[in-house]
């Protein structure tokens, strides 16, 4: 499919979710092989969500990546879940992705315990070095990680505790992760937008009809806090992978 620039963002539209994943995963594989060339390490920031499944599956199948030299982080976690709860984002990532990669290390955000202290700890761990690669999705409300609108594009903090808005919590019920709205934790630890976008390469995987409005807003609305996804247009190296259902054009 043709690609097209929107502001500085490249857009790749594929017919299906699996084709989107194959294309985004192979892009991520190229970025990682390049980052690892010369024998160093690479730092990768991950979203943990169904929209990422096809991309992560394709990336896991990529050849020539020494996962023992890749440090993996995740961008958000619910507050108050048991550390092994199936809804936990670190647990989901371990089961679907990291557990299949020999030698890969995921730095987990701990959902139990003192959330403020955990946000501070994780922020320290991330430090200020840019990520080599960020793989992210877009919420139904346009969020990046758990930065719901209005999102702070200039947050001086790297990781913080946030209240989840109703759309974000409903999305989790609609996707089948929780039985009821009240079961979805009301707060989360999230990497902030400036820290998330402090990255050499950002690959956004956004499949599905439920995301079409959020994609349209991300592409067309003025850049600003009410549409967190518009922050992607401020970054020089973002590729947005869509499937036909998500593509509003
Ligand atoms: O899961 C995460 O790590 C992030 O909180 C979130 O930003 C997510 O990537 C989008 O909400 C898309 O989520 P879905 O794939 O569930 O639609």
Automatic annotation (TrEMBL):
Name by which UniProt lists this protein: 6-phosphogluconolactonase
One GO term (biological process): N-acetylneuraminate catabolic process
Residue ranges of the TM segments: none
InterPro entries with a match to the protein in the record: Glc/Gal-6P_isomerase (IPR006148), Glucosamine6P_isomerase (IPR004547), NagB/RpiA_transferase-like (IPR037171)
MF term (GO), any: glucosamine-6-phosphate deaminase activity
A Pfam family recorded for this sequence: Glucosamine_iso
Keywords per UniProt: Carbohydrate metabolism, Hydrolase
Top-rank EC class of the record's enzyme: hydrolase
EC numbers for this chain: 3.1.1.31
PANTHER family in alphabetical order: GLUCOSAMINE-6-PHOSPHATE ISOMERASE, GLUCOSAMINE-6-PHOSPHATE ISOMERASE NAGB
């Amino acid at each position: 499919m043709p690609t097209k620039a929107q502001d500085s963002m490249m857009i790749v539209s594929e017919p299906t979710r699996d084709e989107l994943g194959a294309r985004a995963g192979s892009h991520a594989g190229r970025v990682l092989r390049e980052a690892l060339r010369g024998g160093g390490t690479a730092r990768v920031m991950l979203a943990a969500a169904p929209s990422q499944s096809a991309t992560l599956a394709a990336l896991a199948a990529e050849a020539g990546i020494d996962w023992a030299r890749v440090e993996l982080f995740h961008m958000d976690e619910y507050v108050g879940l048991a550390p092994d709860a199936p809804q936990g984002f670190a647990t989901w990532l371990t089961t679907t992705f990291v557990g299949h990669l020999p030698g890969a290390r995921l730095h987990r955000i701990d959902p139990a315990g003192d959330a403020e202290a955990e946000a501070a700890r994780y922020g320290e761990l991330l430090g200020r070095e840019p990520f080599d690669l960020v793989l992210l999705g877009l919420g139904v409300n346009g969020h990046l990680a758990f930065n719901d609108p209005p999102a702070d594009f200039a947050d001086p903090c790297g990781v913080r505790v946030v209240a989840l808005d109703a759309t974000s919590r409903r999305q989790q019920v609609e996707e089948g992760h929780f039985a009821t709205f009240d079961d979805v934790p009301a707060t989360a630890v999230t990497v902030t937008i400036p820290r998330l976008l402090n990255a050499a390469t950002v690959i956004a995987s956004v499949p599905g009809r439920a995301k079409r409005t959020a994609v349209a807003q991300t592409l067309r609305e003025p850049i600003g806090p009410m549409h967190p996804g518009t922050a992607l247009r401020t970054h020089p190296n973002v590729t947005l992978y869509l499937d036909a259902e998500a593509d509003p054009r």
